[in-house]
Amino acid sequence: QVQLVESGGGVVQAGGSLRLSCAASGRSFSGYIMAWFRQAPGKEREFLGRIAWTGGNTFYDDSVKGRFTISRGNTRTTMYLDMTNLIPEDTAVYYCATKRTGSTSYTNWGQGTQVTVSS
Predict the structure, then answer these.
(1) Residues 6 or more apart in contact with residue 70 via CB below 8 angstroms
(2) For the chain, how big is the Rg over CA atoms in Å?
(3) Contact assessment for residue 113 and residue 96, using Cβ atoms and an 8 Å cutoff
(4) pLDDT surpasses 90 at 92
């Protein structure tokens, strides 16, 4: 059974940095895509970026390009989201998700981790 567990959320001042982790287990993720999303109160879920688990190619939404970086650990069981120059608008619950490459929908989601950026 696929399990994704996010961690690393917390409260950070504007301008600060934070690293989120997504621990993935339950299968080999070769041929899968892992992604980060977030959802702020009263807003729709927002795609931030993704990484191909095989090859490591990344893609980012324009809203976070240059500030957020997605990477994977050497053991290929953890995905990271490094966030810099955080602003209050980055306050949200952050989720990781996965899907098979070529699929239209993400099939597995973590429970989320709260990030709060104070001004």
Answers:
(1) 34, 36, 48, 49, 50, 51, 58, 60, 79, 80, 81, 82
(2) 13
(3) no
(4) yes
